[in-house]
Amino acid sequence: MSVSARFVVLGTVVALAGCGGDKPSVVSTPPSASVGSAWPAPRPLASAPAADNPPGLLTCRQLAVAVRDASLMEPGVIQGILAASKTADAPVADAARALGEAYEQALTSHGTQSEPDAVAAVSAAAADMSQVCADSGLDSAN
């Protein structure tokens, strides 16, 4: 290497090191980097939610579990189905909304004469949604 090339390299190193200032060095080694590594170690990813592929699959699976376990009227079950439907295709999302509306009506009718009919409407909405899942080609039984 020629003498002038050495000065260019030395000048570049000095410039990058930030000599002569109160500012911290721009180049720093992150605490997670190992001694011989040029790049920091990758951080572990947080647990990613399951992919809804095809859209609506997760919603239909949650519905199938709720129907199988007869847990539609348990707190949080319909809310979970509604949350999963945010990534579903339109027919499944619409059916989930109808199920959520029927559930809300059943909750407000608690202790009234219309409660049995409102609870039956939740079952009917779940059956309709199950048919939408089947029509969409989503196997809701697994």
Profile the largest sheet.
Answer: none
Shape: elongated
The whole-angstrom Rg is: 30 Å
Considering DSSP H and I runs of 4 or more, what fraction of the residues is helical?
40-55%
Instruction: Give the tally of β-strands.
Output: 0
Mean pLDDT: 77
Hey, roughly how much beta strand do the residues contain? under 5%
Pick out the low-confidence regions.
3-17, 44-48
- SSE string, helix = H, strand = E? HHHHH
Structure class: mainly alpha
Helical stretch count? 5
Distance between the termini: 69 Å
Notes on the structure:
This protein is mostly helical and 142 residues long. It has a domain at 57-135. It has five helices and no strands. Helix 4 runs antiparallel to helix 5 (115-135). It is elongated. Residues 3-17 and 44-48 have low confidence and may be disordered. Residues 25-51 have a biased composition (Low complexity).
Reconstruct the topology from this structure.
Layout lengths: L2 H15 L39 H12 L8 H8 L5 H19 L6 H21 L7
Based on the model shown, name its key terms.
142 residues, mainly alpha, 5 helices, 53% helix, 0% strand, elongated, disordered N terminus
